[in-house]
Design goal:
Blueprint lengths: L21 E15 L2 H4 L6 E3 L2 E3 L2 E18 L7 E14 L4 E11 L5 H6 L4 E3 L1 E8 L6 E9 L5 E6 L14 H9 L3 E5 L5 E7 L6 E2 L1 E7 H5 L5 H4 L4 E19 L1
Parallel strand pairs: 6-7, 6-11
Antiparallel strand pairs: 1-4, 1-15, 2-5, 3-4, 4-5, 5-6, 8-9, 9-10, 10-14, 11-12, 12-15, 13-15
Length: about 260
């Protein structure tokens, strides 16, 4: 049985931003999660981490998510600085840091629709890649429920297309977890991210956000070129996610610069 997780045990006040820390709002924030055999991912994860697996039926499964959104009002927290708006898609695997036992995510990489992608690529060696990201979304003016959600990314590294629907009274999936709150803590509240830098070194950075007020959505169609190219989730399997979560807008603090770990 997977241990019960509670927001009361992981929510905390925001650490005060300093230096070049960033504030941003994430619009049309989606988390499309796939439950896959862990051996497909284990070759991509360094020994310091273990996959944070769950049991679904009689099968052990690792979870990974595709997370598209639009960065709006992306700006420095402590200095007057231009604000940017740009589409982004993150590819992340849920892991546990064996040195700290913290639940966190391993980033396979990110596509970003902005010339500013060159900053994290060149200065910090982040696995961020250029792409052209477009969203076509419409929400109900009263309920906020999505009447239309479409995202497309044109990119050599991570081409993607996604269409979601949000019918009334859709329940958040908690398969593999003892209850819905555990599923939400697991899927929405990792605050530390790790990755292989473009120079092969291990990197990390942290974020902060309050509890995300996500709601369930339904996948209409998906085609994530990175997942099929790496042999992680076939195009056919991509049509059957573990869960889909949506939040119209949320606010994040990103603590920079990223650190290099020995």
């Amino acid at each position: 049985m997977y241990p019960r997780l509670r927001f009361s045990e992981c929510l905390h006040d925001r650490p005060t931003p300093t230096g070049i820390d960033v504030l941003c709002k994430l619009q049309h924030f989606a988390i499309v999660t796939y439950a896959i055999p862990p051996e497909r991912l284990s070759r991509l994860i360094p020994p310091r981490f273990r996959l944070d697996c769950v049991n679904i039926g009689a099968n052990e499964r690792a979870l990974m998510s595709v997370v598209p959104f639009i960065d709006i009002d992306f700006t420095a927290a402590c200095f007057p600085f231009p604000k940017f708006t740009m589409g982004q898609t993150n590819y992340r695997v849920y892991v546990i840091d064996t040195q700290t036992e913290e639940r966190c995510v391993w980033f396979l990489g990110t596509t970003l629709d902005s010339w500013t992608v060159m900053v994290p690529r060149l200065y910090w060696n982040l696995p961020w890649h250029p792409g052209t990201v477009s969203f076509d979304c419409e929400q109900d003016a009263t309920s906020g429920r999505y009447l239309r959600y479409r995202m497309q990314t044109k990119a050599s590294w991570g081409p993607a297309s996604l269409e979601l629907a949000q019918p009334n009274d859709l329940e958040i999936c908690s398969d593999g977890f003892p209850d819905q709150e555990t599923a939400l803590v697991y899927l929405t509240h990792p605050l530390a991210g790790f990755y292989h830098r473009r120079d092969g070194k291990l990197g990390t950075y942290r974020v902060w956000h309050s509890r995300l007020m996500v709601s369930a959505a339904q996948l209409v169609s998906a085609n994530f070129g990175l997942l099929s190219r790496l042999g992680l989730v076939s195009v056919e399997e991509q049509q059957h996610p573990h869960s889909v979560l949506l939040e119209p807008i949320s606010e994040f603090t990103i603590y920079l610069p990223p650190r290099v770990l020995k």
